[in-house]
Amino acid sequence: MNETWIALKELGENRMAAVGIVIIVFLVFVAFFAPFFSPHDPLEQNLEKRLLASNGEYPFGTDELGRCIFSRVMYGTRISLEIGVVVVGITALIGTILGVISGYYGGIVDEIIMRAVDVVLAFPGIILALVIAGLLGPGLFNVILALAVTHWPAYTRLVRGMTLSVKEKEFVEAARALRASNFYIMRRHILPNCINPVIVLATLGIAHTIIFAAALSFLGLGIQPPTPEWGSMLKAGIPYLRTAPFLTFFPGIMIMITVLAFNFLGDGLRDTLDPRAKEMIMMKK
Amino acid sequence: MTKVKVEVENLKKYFYSGIFRKKVIKAVDGVSFEIKEGKTLGLVGESGCGKTTVGRTILRLIEPTEGKMLFDGEDITSLNGSKLKKLGREMQIIFQNPEASLNPRMKIYDSIAEPLRIHKICNKNEEKEVIFELIETVNLNEELLFRYPHELSGGQIQRVAIARILSLNPKFIVADEPTSMLDVSVQAQILNLLKDLQKKYAISYLFISHDLEVVEWMSDEIAIMRKGKIVEWK
């Protein structure tokens, strides 16, 4: 049987991971079909129906401008997932490539890349992202850029460490004795053997990125109103926290559920993909 | 009088370490020998005496600090580029640890096909034939081809490792303790296989081991190393 298939099956047997997958599939479904299932246009204002609690017409109630919170939360899924996937896609790719190069070549190349990593990691992530987003101005692209700049070093460090251990293995030396090119060795031998932890980190990274993006929007430097985004919805709801808590409750709970789902999946993936973690679980049992 | 295949003259490899006080480790310190065509030189010594370093330096996996290496009379000490790549078809290595000598993420078939692909020896159709032939030469079952290394035993992996370098038809093989991590019964099989191949293809071996008995059985000549130097010939 195929190895990937076995891993997937094991993942399905992990209850937490299964819950995570179900929620993520549901969220992706919501994001794709938001236009078909949302009861209202998320931007449509209806000032006569401001701050209504949930009722038949508005399942989650309406916000300060009379917009349907249910529809806005649904559309918000799109942006959050988009940012999460795009940022993680970019950072994992760049971070992994730099990590392999850094670990494989060593020497001055390694030194330069790792010092760049240190520089980025020296700043608290949110502050650096704030500075970049502040300098570039708000907007979807700039949020993605700010998050990408702050998130690639994690992958580089991880992959560099993996590369250092893999490149000492005899099959790499055998490939060198075959006079394979460095590019070939990195692509065929090093990369496939350090990709598993990257998958785990990327899954957890999506959760992290979604929180970061929401935080930037909450602080006014991310996605701008009137675009429905969970972070900016939270912010808009603050003045009404006492009188109409549903304004903040629903986007808040969505952020929580999404992040939890990706964390569950990430933990599950770690248990199935990392043999050492697997052994530790066996020992506990 | 048979031809000299490999010649090593005054080979030295020093490793430098330490930041404040420079420490020099003389892993190989002036080793000279020659190996004739179709013959085996056994290299014995305690662990850490530099025998593995000698093997890897000849293959140019490690750059020597000093000394000269000749293959077929040609100086290979500072060969590079396409000439070095060509040399890869002539000289090969078998490793000690069967668990690490094959990429765990590649099927056995791809591992064996790798040298063929790197050196562009044959096209896709011929490739299959060649691989099945190789598998037969080393007495392996065909169904193993589509498994992963962790599903094979140590002896089987060592056979795969031999098969994959045989596809290049090498004339000189460094066998770096190829049997030290195998069961005794399997050891004998692998050693016999190596001997058979030697007869068939006139391969020269540098056989590295710490097991004197095995070396005596395999080799035409034996050099004993200690602290980077050859201290005794047999």
Would you kindly provide a written description of the structure presented here, covering whatever features stand out?
The complex is a heterodimer of chains A (285) and B (234). Chain A has helices at 3-13, 15-37, 69-105, 107-122, 125-136, 140-166, 170-177, 182-193, 195-218, 230-237, 246-273, 275-284. Chain A has 285 residues and is mostly helical. Chain A has a single domain (3-284), classed as MetI-like fold (Orthogonal Bundle). The longest helix of chain B is centred in the C-terminal third of the chain and has 18 residues, at 184-201. In chain B, helix 3 (108-118) packs parallel to helix 5. Helix content of chain B is 35%, strand content 29%. Chain B is built from 7 helices and 10 strands. In chain B, the strands form 2 sheets. Chain B has a 6-stranded mixed sheet with strand order 6-7-8-3-9-10, with helices on both faces. A 4-stranded antiparallel sheet of chain B has the order 2-1-4-5. Chain B is globular. Chain B starts with a strand and ends with a strand. The A-B interface holds A 3, 169-171, 173-180, 184, 188-189, 192-193 and B 56, 59, 61, 84-85, 87-88, 91-93, 95-97, 100-106, 114-115, 118-119, 148, 161, 165, 168.
What keyword list fits this structure?
heterodimer, A: 285 residues, mainly alpha, MetI-like fold, 12 helices, 76% helix, B: 234 residues, alpha/beta, Rossmann fold, 6-stranded mixed β-sheet, 4-stranded antiparallel β-sheet, 10 strands, globular
What is the H level of CATH, i.e. the homologous superfamily of chain A?
A: MetI-like
CATH topology of chain A: MetI-like fold
**Helix-strand string of chain B:** EEEHEEHEHHHEHEHEE
Q: Count of helices of chain A? A: 12
The average pLDDT of chain A is 87
Mean pLDDT of chain B: 86
Rg over CA atoms of chain A: 22 Å
**Structural class of the secondary structure composition of chain A?**
mainly alpha
Topology:
The complex is a heterodimer of chains A (285) and B (234).
Chain A (H helix, E strand, L loop, with lengths): L2 H11 L1 H23 L31 H37 L1 H16 L2 H12 L3 H27 L3 H8 L4 H12 L1 H24 L11 H8 L8 H28 L1 H10 L1
Helix pairs in contact in A: 1-11, 2-3, 2-11, 3-4, 3-6, 3-9, 3-11, 4-6, 5-6, 6-9, 7-8, 9-10, 9-11, 10-11, 11-12
Chain B lengths: L3 E14 L5 E14 L3 E6 L5 H8 L7 E6 L2 E2 L5 H10 E4 L13 H11 L5 H14 L16 H13 L5 E5 L7 H18 L2 E6 L2 H7 L2 E6 L2 E5 L1
Parallel strand pairs in B: 3-8, 3-9, 6-7, 7-8
Antiparallel strand pairs in B: 1-2, 1-4, 4-5, 9-10
